[in-house]
Amino acid sequence: MTELERIALHDLWWTSGWDLGLGWEISEAQPYRGLSTNFVDVDNDSGLAGAIERRDELRRLNPHLKVLVSLFYREGPYVSDEEDHRWWELGHFPPDSPFWIRDEAGMPVPGFGEDADGDGVIEAGEALSSLVDFRMPEVIELVAQRALAVQRTGVADGIMLDWWNEHGLTATSYLDWSTFYMTAEEELESRLALIRRIRELVGDDFLILVNTNERTAPLSAPYANGTFMELYKPDWSAGYTREAIIGIEETLAWATEAFREPRINCLEGWRVVTDYGNAAAQVDERNSEENLRWMRLFTTMALTHSDEMVVFGDDNAEPTVDHLHNWYDFWDADLGQPVGPKGTTHQGVDGLFIREFTNGYAVYNRSGTDQEIHLPDPHMSVSSGQVGEAHRIADMDGEILLR
Predict the structure, then answer these.
(1) What element of type H or E holds 68?
(2) Strand (E) or helix (H) holding 151
(3) 3-state DSSP percent of the chain in helix, strand and coil, to 5
(4) Residues with Cβ < 8 Å from 142, sequence gap 6 or more?
């Protein structure tokens, strides 16, 4: 399977641009990608012929696929020792730019990092980006113009904005989360100013996705088309608590009604990790019985509580690329179109949800006990292949039942 064929399995996909054949236009005279508001393709063609060709092929493979470009606004790559780098390897902004947030010692504040050495701790040398002061009107306008540049390409359907939080603080060192550089009010007002300005520039038809994790974003909802629910859990070696699952479910139910249309909400659950940092074990671990159960739970939660999208992948704590996942046969089940209402309990059992589709049913169970589903005619369980009128669904699990 080719790279584009793998991408086209999905109905929603985003990239920094390069995988789509897009790159921010830079030059030796202006080498900072964060200051660029124009694109070229991988052949440095401002006509974007290579990127257009890739997008056309993706549309041919999957006409339903929506492609987004992710935009930095909270942080960006920082390079201090420019003399040791070639001009195309420099940071998001110049090292002396006023756009960087600095600590009391005048040093840039780490905004994100990965545990590259696999020792379980993200250290200063593993920081990948530094905080940007997105309170500044100049930063807000710059990011909005970059969103407009994405739209002008005609190659992408929208943008993704990460770290979108209306309820807490994010402008802090990623290494220790001890000092915050904006107030909650400043963060909220700045994000709202940014998303309003972007929507003003790009109009109504361009998609905006915001990463709110498990939280709602009611003030942003009129401007955004959906939330990327990247579902954090505190322990990479364990799954989610029942209380966390109920909260996720409630946010998903809210999101499927609150954001502007067309809605592109997407749910991302994280797997249980056994062998931390072992990339060779990841494919097999994703297919463990425990992780298959979590995959079914999140898939059927999405099917019973929304009309949108779901994926199940690695825990972000792992020192490997985020969002990697297997493709599960469960996702190939042809349920058809929904004909039943969202969020409907089965036979009045609290926490047991069922939704009818043209070709069968999706069932999601977090009731606290195993449940038996009785249907009027035989259906096949996608996970087991069992055919019958009665199907047993384990607690904290889900199933697709096909006619």
Answers:
(1) strand 66-71
(2) helix 137-153
(3) 30, 25, 50
(4) 34, 35, 37
Burial class (CB in 10 A: 0-12, 13-18, 19+), 343: middle
Distance, in Å, from the CA atom of 378 to the CA atom of 359, rounded to the nearest integer, reads: 12
Q: Which of 261, 155, 168, 152 is nearest to 202 (CA)?
A: 152
**Confidence class for position 200, pLDDT limits 50, 70, 90:** very high
Q: Which two tokens stand for residue 59?
A: 């549309």
Q: How far is residue 129 from each of residues 17, 18, 146, measured CA to CA in Å?
A: 18, 18, 19
Question: Residue for token digits 């704590």?
Answer: 317
Structural domains of the chain in order of their starting residue, each with its CATH number: 3-335 (3.20.20)
- For 281-315, the pLDDT digits (tens) are 999 999 999 999 999 999 999 999 999 999 999 99
Which pair of tokens denotes residue 329? 């046969």
Beta-ladder partners of 372: 392
Residues 238, 354: Cα–Cα separation, whole Å: 27
